[in-house]
Design a protein that fits this description.
Number of strands: 16
Largest sheet: 6 strands, antiparallel
Distance between the termini: 48 Å
CATH superfamily of the largest domain: Aminohydrolase, N-terminal nucleophile (Ntn) domain
Oligomer: single chain
Radius of gyration: 23 Å
Order of helices and strands: EHEEEEHHEEEEHHEEEHEHEHEHHEHHH
Strand content: 15-25%
CATH architecture of the largest domain: 4-Layer Sandwich
CATH class of the largest domain: Alpha Beta
Strand order of the largest sheet: 2-3-1-9-8-10
Structural class: alpha+beta
Number of helices: 13
CATH topology of the largest domain: Glutamine Phosphoribosylpyrophosphate, subunit 1, domain 1
Helix content: 25-40%
Number of domains: 2
């Protein structure tokens, strides 16, 4: 992942110190390089984690003609296909990066290019020809992108803390969004565009913002989701998804638990001929340890295993929780975040990119609470009230 931040100023003023402070706050997202550029209405900053085109993909990046500027976080899975098509249309490239493909696609198709991108991404693009800035987020909202209207412009960044920093530098006092707080306590997450800070919003998944001359519009670039192909085979879709995510100029790893989700991904990687190191959470408590099942799966597939000891009792728990809160920016109801953080911290010593099976239960109804909820919906209201009364008498 990388970190991006920027300011669009209607008066073209450069807010150098404010932006440098903001990008330093999220420099953990991209330890390989820091970039900065002021151009007309915009000032962009970028903290880079090099994955594709390690030597030639520095940002902010401008198009060959110098008319379009971009800061990009994420990965475009189909950038090679797009590059081939754009080359056939006469576009030329100076790097091997997916970032330059976005620039070329925009020059060729305009904002319509956003719908052609298959990947996980968040980026800001400035078009000097029309003095407009676009903030674009991937279809599922996998990559974060926050923004806020400020005096004489709009600020954006990959993390809430960075936008918060820019607001404070502009003399704005951030306020708690009570509606977002209520939503979190009710749903365990904050839906829609809200954040916990009233003045800061999220770019909606599958949408782009266009900022130009004092106006801001929110637009969807997603095709009709109801029009889905009915002849798709799950195995083929999974294999294609895994293969798209293994395009990298650095080594890849896999978080393997030995469960259905991560094992399915491991099999897809094996069938595609990838040589993978599996990182396995190894807890001291035998009931929580994933080492035995994961080692069995890895052995059957011929993958290497790197056990990662998760020993929370040896950590300064208070300091660890404070660090998690700082990174998350907002409250989270993810009960596994502590263990995942410790696993990721150790894994980062060996490798930059890790694939996981997260999301399988959510997509395919794997949690026991899903059928329980369906069953509860069939219970008559009178019986529910009776059972609730019995519960209150007992407890």
């Amino acid at each position: 992942m990388c970190g991006i931040a920027g300011i669009y100023r209607y008066d073209k003023a450069e807010k150098r110190e404010a932006l440098l402070q903001a990008i330093k706050l999220i420099s953990h997202r991209g330890p390989d390089d820091l970039g900065y550029r002021h151009c007309h209405h915009v000032t962009f900053a970028h903290a880079r984690l090099s994955i594709i085109d390690i030597s030639g993909g520095a940002q902010p990046m401008s198009s060959g003609c110098g008319q379009v500027l971009i800061v990009f976080n994420g990965e475009i899975f189909n950038y090679r296909e797009l590059r081939k098509d754009l080359t056939g249309l006469g576009r030329t490239f100076n790097t091997a990066s997916d970032t330059e493909v976005i620039l070329a696609a925009y020059l060729e198709y305009g904002p319509r290019a956003f719908s052609l991108l298959n990947g996980q991404f968040a980026f800001a693009l400035y078009d000097l020809r029309e003095a407009s800035m676009y903030l674009v987020r991937d279809r599922m909202g996998e990559k974060p992108l926050y923004y806020s209207s400020i005096s004489q412009g709009v600020a954006f960044a990959s993390e809430l803390k960075a936008v918060h920093s820019i607001l404070k530098s502009c003399g704005v006092t951030p306020r708690l969004d009570r509606k977002a707080f209520y939503d979190f306590l009710s749903l365990n997450y904050v839906p829609g565009e809200r954040s916990f800070i009233e003045q800061i919003r999220k770019v909606p998944p599958g949408h782009f913002l266009k900022i130009k001359e004092g106006s801001l519009s929110v637009n969807s670039y997603i095709d009709d989701a109801n029009q889905l192909a009915s002849n798709l085979c799950f195995d083929d879709v999974l294999s294609a998804a895994v293969n798209r995510r293994t395009v990298s100029d650095v080594s890849l790893g896999l978080y393997l638990s030995g469960g259905v989700d991560s094992t399915a991904v491991a099999i897809a990687l094996s069938e595609a001929g990838h040589d993978i190191t599996c990182f396995v959470a190894d807890f001291h408590e035998r009931g929580f340890s994933e080492a035995q099942n994961a080692s069995y799966v890895a052995g059957r597939l011929g993958f290497r295993v790197q056990p990662v000891k998760i020993e929370i009792e040896k950590e300064d728990l208070t300091e660890l929780i404070e660090k998690l809160v700082w990174h998350a920016d907002e409250p989270t109801a993810d009960s596994s975040s502590l263990a995942v953080y410790l696993l990721s911290r150790e894994t980062s010593k060996y490798i930059k990119v890790v694939i996981s099976g997260d999301g399988g239960d959510e997509l395919f109804g794997g949690y026991l609470t899903y059928p329980a909820t369906m069953l509860a919906a069939r219970i008559p209201a009178a019986l529910k009230r009776f059972l609730y009364s019995c519960h209150r008498l007992v407890y």
